[in-house]
């Protein structure tokens, strides 16, 4: 949105052949209206540029009244538009910076990279495009990111020398680390994969920052770190040393390693404990996708419950809220901290299924199943810490999020049916994308 408005103000300045000073005033006014779009009413915004405004003498001296009218109208329209979009306080997000996003072809990484790019950042996205789930979806995300102007590279986070080369070349201001082996159930039979990507290669990321500790690292942790013994709702300082699965154990390990690197080298690291994230381009191995996919195709779904027949409850959180929390944590740049990023309003799985049914206008064929021991019965984020420190406040109501996801699912499945292919993952190999990267040697620091 911001780049768009600035481009608009540039075009306008050219068309009206405004002086440099005035066109600066124009872009300033646009930025002003952006940053105050939620605290100022439309009339207040308009009066900023009216006759009573301190800007007025300046405007009068330098341009015609017609220009002032155009300016005010533009500001008013953009402010109204932003209000409708419900964007607040853009200064809480990184902008005009250079940012590395790992796992950018993944679900959350894709949304984060896209939003950061919208805020006028240089964004480099890396991903190994592994086949944990359908690679086509990762290629679809990467393709969209490239079209938004994100530099997308097929790079493994375990490749230390490539990471060094990238860091030396781009001098990142922030790192958003989302590349990991995700999924609770899969970790039951593939423990090594988790320790490799989530622990070994997390150390690679930390080592990368050892010599530039001032660059804030924000990384994905998980609600799975709350195992046995944590009380509802989950609060950050609560017991997190009795995980019920290997995935949760590796995520807790991230937080411990981050602490050690902060203690030893001053690396600034913030861990975000995400709670059941869903939304467009969501993961095919997660319940929201599976329910939507199977119900719409008339296939039965498994609904898990406890041994004594209780319903499972999840703190489903829309990806837009997750990205908001993530970008706030980047800008906040705590020396060391851990935050819950969830909605703070758990919904039972059967209730969630009803929301999908309502969005699809179709009934589910439910099969009751006992839950696996690795699964928690309830997840529930206490978000006070993130609210207080980051100004985080989840906005997307669960049914709205479900409607939004189902609309995307509809679009995507049609896209697949018509065979509209996306550029393959090899397109993004550094050798194909930026051959000069391979010949330059990383500067030793
Ligand atoms: N989605 C959720 O509900 C949720 C909840 C809690 C935590 N998380 C965490 O958030 C992060 C992002 O999750 P997501 O849902 O987007 O998952 P995802 O699987 O869609 O994204 C992860 C991406 O990382 C990439 N990746 C894996 N190993 C890599 C490696 N060694 N090098 C480079 N890239 C690699 C994968 O190809 C994938 O595209 C993960 O760390 C995950 O554990 C997610
Ligand atoms: C939520 O967390 C805050 C600390 O961030 C704590 O003071 C408060 O008691 C917690 N609330 C509940 C209901 O656990």
Automatic annotation (TrEMBL):
SUPFAM superfamilies reported in the protein's UniProt record: NAD(P)-binding Rossmann-fold domains (SSF51735)
Gene Ontology MF term list: racemase and epimerase activity
Domain NAD-dependent epimerase/dehydratase: 99-342
Pfam families: Epimerase
Signal peptide: 1-17
Keyword terms, alphabetized: NAD, Signal
PANTHER family: EPIMERASE-RELATED
Stated family: Belongs to the NAD(P)-dependent epimerase/dehydratase family.
Name of the protein: NAD-dependent epimerase/dehydratase domain-containing protein
Species: Monosiga brevicollis (Choanoflagellate)
